[in-house]
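Exercise 3.2. Students should predict the tertiary structure of the chain below and write it as structure tokens, then compare their answer with the key that follows.

Predict this chain's 3D structure.
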Amino acid sequence: MQPRNMSMNGVVDLAAVKAAQDAKAKAEQARAEAARQGGAGAVAPADLVIDVDEAGFEREVLQRSAEVPVVIDFWAEWCQPCKQLSPVLERLAVEYNGRFLLAKIDVDANQMLMQQFGVQGIPAVFAVVAGQALPLFQGAAGEEQIRQTLDQLVQVAEQRFGLTGLTVDPDAQPGQAPVQEQAGPYDAALNAAAEALDAGDLGGAIRAYQNVLADDPAHPEAKLGLAQAELLQRVQGFDPQQVRQEAAEKPKDVDAQIAAADLDLVGGHVEDAFGRLIETVQRTVGDDRDTVRRRLLELFEVVGQEDPRVVGARRALARALF
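Answer key:
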């Protein structure tokens, strides 16, 4: 099963990346619901370390990463460094008292997950935050280095996504608390859009996202999903070799540069796509310049407004315009 809502190794996941604002809103909603239920949802210290396989990955890692950073420990029984690292991570998971959840994945039994994360050797430690994956470190590491890495992780999770972690009750009975996610008013439409994307029905996905935006023009997940689906639809009939050849031969041709930028982004070459359009803005005037600027803003939506690459490109665009 391909994990959804993941962006790693600099590649944009065009299927279902969550906007940071949406993740933050869901986290706040979950905390408010727990408070209304008098602290329901608290976990026992033993629940802070879980074993995860491919079948449970989406439920136990991707979904739970909307409420707490999930640290993934890729290990194997035959790996001696793993036997040194894993107990440290397990102890720190309890010590951090719910600020992160430790998911242990046996690579021998879950090779598909190992390949999807691009694990080249073990031990390897990753994190998933609000559905987005990032590498932490590989190989043996000292406890001080691990603590520094974890401190940075929980800080970013709280500041960017509003994830303050799980409530831990020392007296609670062990038994993994289920992910509690309230159904939102647009969940049916968003699920329909996701299913259409999975089936390759880009037109159906676009209509579903448009239906949400017709009622809520600022809905972050629908805006992001629509931008992604429209991008995929634009490049669907492209001949990559022809598109790149035309872009190289016609540096001032707005349509050629826009098409190449779309292709760059779908291929995960985010900086190349942004740089190409910013250079085209510098070479054009009038309506042509505005056309390029608007496409660049659309690509910003695809990547996510808080992505550092978008922040840097916005500054470069401002310099190019003014």
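Discussion points: The first strand starts at residue 49 and ends at 51. Strands lie at 49-51, 70-75, 101-106, 124-129, 132-138.
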